[in-house]
Specification:
- The complex is a heterodimer of chains A (113) and B (113).
- Chain A is mostly beta strands and 113 residues long.
- Chain A contains no helices and eleven strands.
- In chain A, the strands form two sheets. In chain A, strands 2, 4, 5, 6, 9, 10 and 11 form a seven-stranded mixed beta sheet that branches. A four-stranded antiparallel beta sheet of chain A has the order 1-3-8-7, with no helix packed on it.
- In chain A, a hairpin with a 3-residue loop joins strand 4 and strand 5.
- The mean pLDDT of chain A is 92.
- With 113 residues, chain B is mostly beta strands.
- In chain B, the strands form two sheets. In chain B, strands 2, 4, 5, 9, 10 and 11 form a six-stranded mixed beta sheet that branches.
- In chain B, a hairpin with a 7-residue loop joins strand 9 and strand 10.
- Chain B starts with a strand and ends with a strand.
- Classes of the chains: A mainly beta (113), B mainly beta (113).
- Chains A and B meet through strand 5, strand 9 and strand 10 of A and strand 4, strand 5, strand 9 and strand 10 of B.
Chain lengths: 113, 113
């Protein structure tokens, strides 16, 4: 079966712009989580969605937001981009929360210049 | 505050020998622990998990040990193979995985032929 699909793979934006990243979970998976990976901070949890509702949220400013659609696809949005937002953004899906062993996509590499 | 720490950024091991990756945590509410493996340009791949009700879980060449009193877990890979060269992340969660995953910063494992 197809894995977690994230688009686009690479993105370059300028400071102050906004960006929307997309994640299509594995078919049948209803829980989607987003993570930010940077060299200095490792993998940091952004948010988790299940049945179109945000279940958990990490310690990120309000510029970071997300949503989930009825088909379980998810988007995350970052507004007013800053240089420090440059990172690999990873999406993970699972059948439901608390099932562990999430499957990750390959990520979207965002570069802010 | 780094609740999950992998103090060794890198580890080099000879092919065929044992690789031991370590992880420490500070939050006593964590009760579910996972290890992920990540190749460049790919998302993390789930390897193995352990619940706090156990102190050992084994899956083929991979064994995870949990020492709750020391708040320490380790991943043993025996025997190490060149394909094991990757970055390994440990992660922890509360409520048996119902809470968000908190990741360590990763350890880059290199297996030398």
């Amino acid at each position: 079966k197809a894995g977690v699909t994230q688009t686009p793979r690479y993105l370059i934006k300028t400071r102050g712009q906004q960006v929307t990243l997309s994640c299509s979970p594995i078919s049948g998976h209803r829980s989607v989580s987003w993570y930010q990976q940077t060299p200095g901070q490792g993998l940091q949890f952004l948010f988790e969605y299940f049945s179109e509702t945000q279940r958990n949220k990490g310690n990120f400013p309000g510029r970071f937001s997300g949503r989930q659609f009825s088909n379980s696809r998810s988007e995350m949005n970052v507004s007013t981009l800053e240089l420090g937002d440059s990172a690999l953004y990873l999406c993970a899906s699972s059948l439901a929360p608390a099932t562990g062993g999430d499957s990750f996509g390959s990520g979207t590499r965002l570069t802010v210049v | 505050d780094q609740q999950v720490k992998q103090n060794s950024p890198s580890l080099s091991v000879q092919e065929g020998r044992i690789s031991i990756l370590n992880c420490d945590y500070t939050n006593s509410m964590f009760d579910y622990f996972l290890w992920y493996k990540k190749y460049p340009a790919e998302g993390p791949t789930f390897l193995i998990s352990i619940s706090s009700i156990k102190d050992k879980n084994e899956d083929g060449r991979f064994t995870v040990f949990l020492n709750k009193s020391a708040k320490h877990l380790s991943l043993h890979i025996v025997p190490s193979q060149p394909g094991d060269s990757a970055v390994y992340f440990c992660a922890a969660s509360g409520l048996q995985g119902a809470q968000k995953l908190v990741f360590g910063q990763g350890t880059r494992l290199t297996i030398n032929p």
